Amino acid sequence: MRVTVDTPGGTASKAGSALSARRGQILGLSPHPSWGRWERVEALLPESGLTGLDAELRSLSQGLASFTAQFDHLAELTGKQADEVVKTRAAETARAS
Fold this sequence. Notes:
This protein is an alpha+beta fold. The protein has helices at residues 12-21, 53-60, 79-96, and strands at residues 2-8, 25-31, 38-44, 66-70.
């Protein structure tokens, strides 16, 4: 997902850290085009990283930050996350049998 976070000045670094902690890839940080003293953070984030993001961003910005998300691309899941999905699916299949 392509995520755009609008946040008050001074809290953009916290928003970027929150996105990175959710396996996000920060694409850029810039001033908001029409709101003075606000900043915009753009990132690519797995869809699973959207869960609870709104609450975390609001807590980091005294309730003011918001975000929008739109589909950007599909990517293959690899490594530890892929192993967890396979293990979970195998357990569900075993229970269903």
